[in-house]
Amino acid sequence: MSFDTYSFLFFFLPGVILAYFSIEAVGKLMLCNKPGGNAASVNPLLPIQNMLLLVASLFFYAWGEPVYVCLLIAASMVAWCGGMLMERFGKAGNNSMRKAVMIITVSLLVMSLGVFKYLGFLTENLNLIPSFHIPVVDISLPIGISFYTFQILSYVIDLYRGNVAVQRNPFRLLLYVSLFPQLIAGPIVRYQTVESELTQRRASLDDIQEGTFRFIRGLAKKILIADNVARLSDAIYGVYENALSDTFAPDCTGTTALWIASLAYTLQIYFDFSGYSDMAIGLGRIFGFHFLENFNFPYISRSITEFWRRWHISLSGWFRDYVYIPLGGSRCSTSRRAVNIMAVWMLTGFWHGAAWNFILWGLYYGFILMAEKAVLDRMGKKTVTSLWGWAYAFIVVNLGWVLFHLTDFAMLKSVLHDMFIYHPTDWLRLMAENSDTLLTLIYVPIGLLFCFPVFTFIVERKTTTMLVVRTLAASLLLLLSIVYIVSSSFHPFIYFRF
User: Which member of 58, 90, 159, 486 has the lowest number of beta carbons within 10 Å of its beta carbon?
Assistant: First the structure.
């Protein structure tokens, strides 16, 4: 099930909200009728609300993955058993066994991710060796496995480090893993972020209001901007691919069109993914969970280092805390630091997909970040503040998304060649073949505008006037989004395939 479908917007979400807050109302009534009770206290029916969310979340996942919901439950139970054993050995003072349980638990979780996501890729590449003839394993990728596996790993590792307490209730741990707002495509919520809210939370009126606004904003990002610029990018790359594969197909895409296509995809992936994160954070807040931010206007960055502090914050923070720092981080020799950076970014690329272009994309950023660190060290770590810094970062990121998007290496090589070696675009022929699609060019400047924090004052100010403005704007965006959902084709979220 996806956030931008009829079944979710008109049936699943209203039904879950109605049931959840009906239980909330009954709980408050019980508190008010109890001597000395206070309606502001934690709802005594919170365990029932948790069970409702758990059942709803498993149903949400099973809607698209009826078989693999068992894998999600099994992974959660492996972590729960591992956590209980670590606590037992810890109390007995047997640290070697405690560490062994942690290693076994982490290994089982990583092995599960490896089998379902990377086994086919591994067998395909081994078969390139003349002496190898291994049957290629074709296993469908469970939706969201990369996200929920990293969440479970954070719980196991943080528990071993002593950063969180063991969760003795297996249903609460399963709720943390499967909570439907962030289950499919993040953000990667660490257990310590919601540890207390699993047992002590209440959704205030402000939470419900802010969460609703945030959800609608994310939906509009996805439907109104991401899906429309996607049509432009897909059309240009589609014509280009046809011209490469068919000598009789018209070659009307040139350098300008390819740069526009890359820019359109740059906007698409931002509004698609940040839109999902906004919806996830908003939904979580409606139910009383406060997830951390995942995007902070990354396209205003003046360096690639800054970009990765603003883009997919939960993933970059995960690799920093669980891979980069344990490897030694930056507190080591220059050569070791370079190895650490390249290892992290190769893994970051591979996390996104079992394909060589993702590994290339990760190494691309690894080399650039090493170069930046060397330059900034020489400059005394001065921050780049000029327009040139922004232009440099935006172009580098834009080219990075070309590597990320085009999985066919022949096409990737040809596109990069034609982006830098000028080749004229036959706009008349291109418009004739894709007249409706190319009208979506208007969404490129709109997308660029909303990449910058130009309307943050509407969000930040809490005056009555701004509340009215936000309500009217949210109502209009919701109406437009529903109209687009009804009238246009479905575009799945990009990060669903990771």
Answer: 486
Is residue 218 classed as helix, strand or coil in its secondary structure?
helix
Q: Quick one: pLDDT band at residue 386, thresholds 50, 70, 90?
A: confident
With bands split at pLDDT 50, 70 and 90, how would you rate the model's confidence at 387?
confident
Q: Confirm if 481 and 219 have CB atoms less than 8 A apart.
A: yes
CB atoms within 10 A of CB 38: 10
Structure token pair of residue 157: 């590792």
Q: For residues 443 and 39, what is the distance between their CA atoms, to the nearest angstrom?
A: 47
Query: Taking Cα atoms as reference points, which of 216, 205, 225 lies closest to residue 472?
Result: 216
Distances (CA, A) of 98 to 85, 104, 156, 192: 7, 10, 11, 20
Cα–Cα distance measured from residue 396 to residue 366, given in angstroms and rounded to the nearest whole number = 12
Quote the pLDDT of residue 487: 76
Amino acid present at 295: F
Contacts of 220 (CB under 8 A, 6+ apart): 275, 477, 478, 480, 481
Task: Provide the CA 272 distance to its chain's centre, in angstroms.
Answer: 9
Residue-level pLDDT at 203: 85
Question: What pLDDT is stored for residue 6 in this prediction?
Answer: 84
Average pLDDT of every residue of the chain: 88
Residues in the chain: 498
The Cα–Cα gap between 440 and 230 comes to 9
Q: Could you confirm whether 312 is annotated as catalytic?
A: no
Are the C-beta atoms of residues 167 and 80 closer than 8 Å to each other?
A: yes
Chain-centre distance of CA 64, in angstroms? 18
Cis peptide bond upstream of 187, omega within 30: yes
Computed on alpha carbons and rounded to an integer, the radius of gyration of the chain in Å comes to 24
Residue 410 CB neighbours (<10 A): 11
> Of the residues 352, 405, 417, 491, which is catalytic?
352
Q: Which residue has the higher pLDDT, 437 or 429?
A: 429
Q: How far apart are CA 317 and CA 299, in angstroms?
A: 18
